[in-house]
């Protein structure tokens, strides 16, 4: 169950980052509130995940899911343009957090 919490914590990190962009510097109340709700959900789920998983495993995977997901959200939702070299390094992030999972045994 800890892994499920961790994956959803990473997804909510993407959600709140996206909502923060939509809040336009916290000038739109609805998106600002949605950002805070997403943050609470993300941190709450991360907190639950770390009750069973070591912090040295959970935190980098959480940030990795958030980083890769936010890059993809930026491209898909906001038309961000990335160079091929940037995509290569995004792929390395993905490979990195998969590698962390595979080489640590991962708690639960």
UniProtKB/TrEMBL annotation:
Name the record gives this protein: Multidrug efflux SMR transporter
Pfam families cross-referenced by the UniProt entry: Multi_Drug_Res
Organism, scientific name: Schleiferilactobacillus harbinensis
SUPFAM superfamilies: Multidrug resistance efflux transporter EmrE
Topological type in the membrane: Multi-pass membrane protein
Family the UniProt entry places it in: Belongs to the drug/metabolite transporter (DMT) superfamily. Small multidrug resistance (SMR) (TC 2.A.7.1) family.
Keywords: Cell membrane, Membrane, Transmembrane, Transmembrane helix, Transport
Hydrolase as UniProt keyword: no
């Amino acid at each position: 169950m800890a892994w499920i919490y961790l994956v959803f914590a990473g997804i909510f990190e993407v959600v709140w980052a996206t909502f923060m962009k939509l809040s336009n510097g916290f000038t739109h109340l609805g998106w600002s509130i949605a950002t805070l709700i997403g943050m609470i959900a993300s941190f709450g789920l991360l907190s639950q995940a770390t009750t069973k998983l070591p912090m040295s495993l959970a935190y980098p995977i959480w940030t990795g899911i958030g980083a890769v997901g936010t890059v993809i959200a930026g491209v898909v939702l906001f038309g961000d343009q990335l160079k091929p070299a940037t995509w290569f390094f995004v792929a390395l992030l993905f490979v990195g957090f998969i590698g962390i999972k595979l080489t640590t045994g991962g708690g639960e």
